[in-house]
Amino acid sequence: MSESMPVTCLRQAAGAAVVALAFLLSLAACDRGPKSGHGFTLPEGDAAKGEAAFVRFECTDCHSIAGREDLRQGVEPIMTVPLGGETPRIQTYGKLVTAIINPSHKISQKYLDTPVAENGVSKMRNYNDVMTVSELID
């Protein structure tokens, strides 16, 4: 038996351990507990009604819609977010709803030292008692 045999076995064992660890971590990421968003879906909304709600709730005070400068209400927005359609930042309905009903849940690092948040808490108004589910969907 050559001396390189134990080294090869060690490398194979280390490789297998890395694969097993990656697999276990991926299982942890698939949380399906009672607080997970698994299975949560929204029905189709109405973009025109969503736009009206966006303006009515004065979301344009802090947000703008790409290509819709006409919706601004005299205030230069802090950030730009697309209204409806595809967005690269929010990948699930659960994340979208969470961003609106619990904006302090996860604030992007790039906004921590801006007027968007103070001491890790979002300055976004709380709409939970005034926005209907239909308005949220739209």
List keywords for this structure.
138 residues, mainly alpha, 2 domains, two-stranded parallel ribbon, two-stranded antiparallel ribbon, 36% helix, globular
Radius of gyration over all CA atoms, rounded: 23 Å
Q: Residue share in helices?
A: 25-40%
Biggest sheet features: 2 strands, parallel
Quaternary state reads: single chain
Structural class: mainly alpha
Topology:
Blueprint (H helix, E strand, L loop, with lengths): L3 H26 L17 H10 L6 E2 L14 E2 L12 H9 L15 E2 L2 E2 L10 H5 L1
Parallel strand pairs: 1-2
Antiparallel strand pairs: 3-4
Structural account:
The structure is a single chain. This protein has helices spanning about 5-30, 45-55, 95-100, 135, and strands at about 65, 80, 115-120, 120. With about 140 residues, it is mainly α. The chain folds into two domains: about 1-30; about 45-135, no CATH class. It has a two-stranded parallel sheet. The protein is globular, with a radius of gyration of 23 Å.
Brief rundown of the structure:
The protein is mainly α and 138 residues long. The protein is built from 4 helices and 4 strands, in the order ααββαββα. It folds into 2 domains: 30 residues; 91 residues, no CATH class.
